[in-house]
C-alpha cells in the first residue's frame, strides 16, 4: 500500500499559543517561527503534528484532520473513492500537492503527494536510513573538482572560511569543499546518513568537518554554535526539493559574510527521467514495479531552477548560474544501485526480490556492459553584495 499517515493537522485560532503548548507537550520542534505563519509543522523523531490557522471560528467538526502521505496520489485517491470517500478539491502545486477528500461520514482528510522514487514533502520521514545510507554513499555521484572550483571562486573561499552544507547526505559535497576552507558543518536530518558521512571522512583523512543532526529550519540556531561569526557559504547539494526554500533563503542572509551566500547544486537529472532510450525504458519498468510513474525531477528541471532563482533574488541575493557537464559510464549494478539509493528504506525490494528486480532492469534497459549517462551539475549562486 503506497500510503501512510503523515501528520495530524489541528485547526487553531492562535498559532503562537498552540505552538508553545504542543511543542512543549510532545517535545516537538516547530518548522518555523515566522510572524504571520498560517501553517506550521511541529516535528518529532517519528511523528509530525501540524497547526493550521483558521480564518473562521473553529467548531468541533473541523477541529482537526489527517494528512495521508502517498507515493502514488492519483491511485490512492481512486482506491479511497472506491471505498466510499469523495473528492472535495485538488490543490495542484508542485511545492504543496494535496487532494482534500471526505470519508463516508463527511470528515475531511488530505492525500498529500510524495513522489517515488526520489521525492518528498517538507516535514516527512524521508526513510534514508539503515541500508539506504550505505547505498546512497556507494552509488550517488560525487562532484567533479571543476564544481568545487566554481564554488570557491564564486564565494572567494579562503583557508579562514566556514561553510555549512545543508542536506549533506554522506558527504558528497561537504568533503571536497573541506579542502578549500577552515571548516565545514554538514547538516542532515538522518542519523544514519551522518554516521556514514563520518566514516567517509575518516577514510578520506578529512578532519575539519563537523556533522550535525538537523534540518533546514534549524539553520538560524547554528549561529550560536560557532560564536556568531559569519559563514562564507551555505551549500545545498541535490537536496533543496526537500526544503522550504523561501524560508531558507531568508534565514541565510543574516548568517553569511559580504561576498558569501547560497549555492544550490544539482547533480544530474534522475536516471529514469533522461532522454536516452534506456532511461525511458527504465522509467516504464519502475512504473510497472512500483505502481507509480516516477515523475519528480528533484529540483533539476527548468521550472524548479527558475523558481529557486526568483526566490533567491527576492531574499536579496545577486543571482548567477554555472554548470559543469560530463558523461558517466554506468554498469547495470550502478543503475540498480542508483535506484535503490533514491528509495526510502521501506520501499526497497526485499532481499529475496532483488535478483528478479535486477534481471527485470536488465531486460528493460538492454543487455550491455556500459550505459552512458550525460550529467549536468547545475549551480545557482546567490551572493550577498559587498
Number of helices: 12
SS elements, strand count: 15
Q: What series of H and E elements makes up the topology?
A: EHEEEEHEEEHHEHEHEHEHEHHEHHE
Low-confidence segments: 115-124
- Rg from Cα: 21 Å
As a percent range, the share of strand residues is: 25-35%
| Average residue pLDDT | 86
Summarize the structure.
With 386 residues, this protein is α/β, with parallel strands linked by helices. 31% of the residues lie in helices and 27% in strands.
Describe what you observe in this structure.
With 386 residues, this protein is α/β, with parallel strands linked by helices. Helix content is 31%, strand content 27%. The chain is built from twelve helices and 15 strands. The chain has helices at 15-25, 73-82, 131-139, 145-154, 174-178, 191-204, 219-222, 245-252, 277-290, 302-314, 332-341, 354-365; strands at 3-12, 29-30, 39-43, 48-53, 64-70, 86-91, 98-102, 108-113, 162-166, 183-188, 209-213, 231-237, 256-265, 318-330, 371-383. It has an eight-stranded mixed β-sheet with strand order 2-3-4-1-5-8-7-6, covered by helices on one side. A seven-stranded mixed β-sheet has the order 11-10-9-12-13-15-14. A hairpin with a 5-residue loop joins strand 7 and strand 8 (108-113). Helix 3 (131-139) packs across helix 11 (332-341), helix 9 (277-290) packs antiparallel against helix 12 and helix 11 (332-341) crosses helix 12 (354-365). The protein starts with a strand and ends with a strand. Mean pLDDT is 86; it is low at 115-124.
Features:
alpha/beta; seven-stranded mixed sheet; 15 strands; 31% helix; globular
